[in-house]
Amino acid sequence: MKKIIKIKRTAEKGRQFLEPFLYEGDGNETVIDFLEEINSRSEIVNADGKPSQPISFNCSCKEKKCGACAMVIDGKPRLACTVHMRELKENALIEPLSKFPVIRDLSVDRTIMYNGQETLKAWPEAPQEPMDTDAVRCLMCGLCLEVCPNYIPGSSFTGGAGVAGAARGMDSTDAAHTKDVKKEYMKHFFRDCGQSLSCVRICPMNIPLDKLQARLAKKK
Amino acid sequence: MMNANILIVGSGAAGLNAALTLAKKGCGCLLVSESPSERAQSNMAEGGINAALDNCGEGDSPELHAADTIKAGRNIASPAAVNGLCNAAPRIIEELSAMGMPFDHTADGKVAQRAFGGQSRKRTCYCGSETGLILMHTLITMARKYEAQGLIRRETGLLFLRVLTDDKGICGALFADKYTGKICRITTRAVIMCTGGLNGLFGIATGSVLNSGTAAASLFTSGVEFSNLEFIQFHPTTSPLKGKSMLISEAARGEGGILYTLENGQRIRFMQGFEKGDLSPRDVISIEEQKIIDKGGDIYLDLTALDGDIIDSRLGSLRESCKMFLGIDMKTAPLPVRPGIHYFMGGVRTDSSHRASIDGLFAAGEAACIYHGANRLGGNSLLGALYGGECAAYAALSADREETEITATSESVDIYEVKAAAQQDEDIRRQLCRLGVIRTPEVIADVQEKLSCIEEQARGKEYLHSRCLLAMAIAESISQRRESRGAHLRTDFPDTLPEYRKTSTVYYDGVIKHRFDEVGE
Ligand SMILES: Cc1cc2nc3c(=O)[nH]c(=O)nc-3n(C[C@H](O)[C@H](O)[C@H](O)COP(=O)(O)OP(=O)(O)OC[C@H]3O[C@@H](n4cnc5c(N)ncnc54)[C@H](O)[C@@H]3O)c2cc1C
Ligand code: FES
Fold first, then answer.
1. Is there a contact between B366 and B347 (Cβ–Cβ < 8 Å)?
2. Which residue range forms the structural domain that includes residue A99?
């Protein structure tokens, strides 16, 4: 199988451009394998025969266990280590997530998500009830914010990851803390959520964010 | 009072727990890593954490846990250190529960415990097959509280380059800032290295590609002593993917999965003659598998006879991964498996307080060598990372203090060059991978010779050269241990010899030097 895949790259001063690369294989490699293969070429040449630079991207586990590799593939936000090359069309586009600042090429800065968890006070005070078993499976990959129609980049809206975070912080035996987290949750999630449920559909861990929301709504 | 004087490098389970330990004592720290904690290898752990809670009523005790650990480690882990680890384990599980970690529970409300290889009792506590991810959420959630108080300060995007020393020992460390490409200097008198295992040096391992071995290679080149590098754990049930291998957790066998090979179309359960059968220690199974593979045979792990509900409730995410990455549903078909590099028992040489060979340097987690001897028990490494992080934090507290400060220098570094060194060392990787489960004298000698040639060519290329030196140190450790023990099997010295009941230590001082030390008390 041979196809041309276009990758969104960054040049000087953050300018973005598309660069075509040739993929050759049986289609069973993942997008991460493809990116690694390009970087391991002794001389990196793009599909137009022009010399190129190593591609920057995030990846750690390659097994859908760490959330590092979220990017937009063929128009859909996905975890790149779960997408096989056979699924990609000729001229398919691989782009960085659009709602986070690009560091270089396909790697983005998701610091805002971690800061959001802090804003929500998503931590236990005093001995904690066992945390919600769905909420502890969030990969903090950012796909929920990428697809959310209500998330404006840079804003303090915490999206699906915020729902999971708030759920982790709210099951405290300390009633005052639970109240505090609820207050922040209302401000940084509930108030601006339009119930599109796009986060529920995209979550790679299938976390039932709608059910979590319903549970949090009952918390005082 | 903010008192940020300790630098922790690496924010997996070990680094996070070191930071939490300091924060609980009111001491500030700076927790630095290349990627956020959410991406660390610790998130990948599946099977669980060991602690002798005796929730299955089998008469388990920390003493038995320690005895199993020492036995699996073939008597070369320090008994004092192992006792400390096993005694602390029940408390650690209690503390994690109090932080809200949702362990699986038994019907009567106790933390559930499963069987794991090489252990005499059911003592592995777990959260389905996602123990690592959930443990990390627990630690991260807790760390956030101290972050908000200013006690833990986290910086990501910093790739460790090297330690700085003066006549008093450690005086700081240099990092490459991924965001700016600038070199960043952090001054401090205490550095705790929690940078994980040496996956990247071999290229194909079950763990995270973030653990590139860059940090260890640099420490080695700076003269830091490493121990037991010859002991590399091959996990008996892995499946190769591109550029890495996928682990099929021991939990699959703990829940009843069986291993077999085919001979003339007949299923042969090759582990049946062994005391613990399919749940024998990892080194024992891997060696048996390798013998079969060397004769052209294949190995399978069969879970098709298991109750479907058990698979769904306890191995659900593992089943999903097998479907996605191997295209096989474990409910209906056996999984082809083989031994794959999984854990590094060796690492930075530390004493039982986690002090390394340079004043002010400490190490914990998979980066350190301390609890696992010649072979690690499944479920003991998360425990070792948590307990080790805690011990290293206490040891660092007593070190000389100096305010930790980050200054960016105008010097810049091409971070892609540093990372490229980890990708371009294919020749080194190819040689190291030849030192597999069964080691022959011819291959050991040939690998040493080839690595020497690569080293000569790599001189002047700092990052590549230091990787080559560490690779040579591994080969030297393998060559010097003229016996077989645990994960180290030599065809020319097949027996375990009492005179080698020692820790091997290797360091660089212009040339690579090797010695054997007595096992700590
Ligand atoms: C698939 C799998 C399953 C496992 N299952 C289990 C299990 O069930 N039970 C068990 O006990 N153990 C298990 N293990 C082993 C266990 O996960 C690890 O040994 C343990 O998590 C190591 O933790 P750590 O904190 O030492 O390192 P890690 O979690 O690997 O963290 C290393 C940290 O160092 C950082 N880092 C690395 N290099 C640099 C650098 N140069 N500069 C800056 N930062 C750097 C990384 O970004 C990361 O933050 C498993 C391992 C794997 C791979
Ligand atoms: S690399 Fe970890 S989820 Fe893809």
1. yes
2. 2-108
List C-alpha distances in Å: A99 to A103, A124, A187, B180, B247.
12, 29, 20, 20, 33
C-alpha to C-alpha distances, B501 to B78, B381, B485, B494, B498, nearest whole angstrom = 11, 22, 9, 15, 5
Rounded mean pLDDT, B1-13: 79
What tokens were used for B90? 């029940």
Which run of H or of E encompasses B241?
Answer: strand B232-241
Catalytic pick from B121, B282, B314, B439? B282
Q: State the DSSP code for B252.
A: H
CB B43 within 8 A of CB B133: yes
Mean pLDDT rounded to a whole number for chain B: 93
Residues A68 and A100 in one domain: yes
Of the listed ranges B134-148, B236-250, B493-507, the least confidently predicted one is B236-250
Centre of ligand 2 to C-alpha B377, Å, is 26
Q: Is the pLDDT of residue B411 over 80?
A: no
User: CA B174 → CA A100, B226, B360, B397, distances in Å?
Assistant: 28, 21, 15, 22
A118/B144 CB distance under 8 A = yes
Q: Which residues of B touch A66 (CB under 8 A)?
A: 38-40, 43-44, 208
Preferred mutation among B131, B134, B145, B323 to probe A, highest tally of A CBs within 10 A: B145
Which CATH number belongs to the domain containing residue A174 in this structure?
1.10.1060.10
CB B337 within 8 A of CB B238: yes
Domain end position, chosen among B342, B374, B391: B342
Task: Report the range of poorest mean pLDDT among A28-42, A73-87, A121-135, B142-156.
Answer: A121-135
Name the β-bridge partners of B506.
B226, B514
Looking at the fold, whether B228 and B262 belong to one and the same domain comes out as no
| Unique residue bearing structure tokens 């058990």 | B310
Q: How many domains does chain A have?
A: 2
In a domain, B241, yes or no: yes
Q: How confident is the model at residue B412 (pLDDT cuts 50, 70, 90)?
A: confident
Q: For residue range A175-196, list pLDDT tens digits in order.
A: 899 999 999 999 999 999 999 9
A117 in reach of chain B (CB within 8 A): yes
- Answer yes or no: do B337 and B253 share one domain: yes
- What residue ranges line ligand 2, CB within 6 angstroms? A 59-62, 64-69, 79, 81
Which residue among A36, A63, A169 sits closest to B44, beta carbon to beta carbon?
A63
Average pLDDT over residues B258-286: 93
Alpha-carbon distances of A106 from B176, B342, B439, rounded to whole Å: 19, 29, 41
Residue A133 CB neighbours (<10 A):
13
pLDDT, tens digit, for every residue of A123-156? 888 777 899 999 999 999 999 999 999 999 999 9
- Please tell me whether residues B252 and B215 are part of one structural domain: no
Q: Tell me: the pLDDT tens digits for B19-31?
A: 999 999 999 999 9
Residues B421, B466: Cα–Cα separation, whole Å: 10
Query: Are both B295 and B310 inside the same structural domain?
Result: yes
Query: Phi then psi for B458, rounded to 5 degrees?
Result: -85, -5
Counting one residue from chain A and one from chain B, the pairs whose CB atoms sit within 8 A come to: 125
Q: Which residue of B has its CA nearest to A110?
A: B36
CB B395 within 8 A of CB B414: no
Residue ranges making up the domain that contains B432: 199-233+414-518
Phi (first) and psi of residue B25, to 5 degrees:
-90, 5
- How does residue B497 score in pLDDT terms, banded at 50, 70 and 90? very high
Q: Token pair for residue B232?
A: 């590399």
